[in-house]
Amino acid sequence: MFKGIFSTIFVTLTLSSIAMAQPKISVEEGTTLDFGSAYTGSKVEKILTIRNLGNQPLHITEVKAQCGCTATIMKEEDKTIPPDGKGKVSITFDTHNYGGQKVTKQVFISSNDSSNARLAVSFNVNVLNVLDIAPKFVSFNDSKMESTYTKSVTITNPGKESVKILNTNSVFDQIRIDLMKKDLRPGESTQLQVTFHPTKSGTLQGTIDLETDSKIQPKFSVPVYTWVTRK
Question: Is 12 exposed, middle or buried (0-12, 13-18, 19+ CB in 10 A)?
Answer without folding.
Answer: exposed
